[in-house]
Amino acid sequence: MDDDVRVHLGDEEAVLLGERALWLPQRGAVLIADLHLGKADIFRRAGIALPVGGTHSDLQRLQQLVERTDCNQLWILGDVLHGPVHRAPWHAQWLGWREQQPGLQVHVVRGNHDRALSKATLAVDVHERQAMLGPFVLRHEPEPAEDGTHVIAGHLHPQAALPGLPRRLPAFWLRGHMTVLPAFSAFTAGVVPRLQTGEQMAACGDGAVFLLPKRV
Q1: Is residue 216 in some structural domain?
Q2: Which of 94, 106, 161, 186 has the greatest count of CB atoms below 10 A from its CB?
């Protein structure tokens, strides 16, 4: 894992992975956000040209994450879906992948695009607004915890704009008591956050992740 970055969130070590995922070794858990299954299909039906095979590629990336971390838990922090599930082409691919991972617990914290999640039969455990994982609060919306507990969230799709690069890079947004994960899906826009003093980003590119300077 030479291309990954080890950080401390609260009092626990975490690893930022270039695949846009967070690895908590002490918990045996990989965390991602904003998978948006079916988004490319919806865009193509609307006449927006996107390449086919998006779900297959995302599942390959998930499988590689599971294999190289040897995790026993996968947490998806919201927006596992992007629209209706009925007869969606990606649904069978997802279920086929789940059958290949009988020992992997998959948890989903419901996001704003997950209205159809209750009827989706994705073989996942659903948490309505948030969940606790050790010392962390897991949410979709990046709202701070009133008691100062470290929050790990998604939703914003943070990106880093670097001088000399023609495109923005998906990035982790490291805040005082909160970490916002990059979108796992490749077909997502995002925002470039305005950092406050002491905050930092870690940009993902070509399977690696690298820390950017802190805001001073």
Answers
A1: no
A2: 94
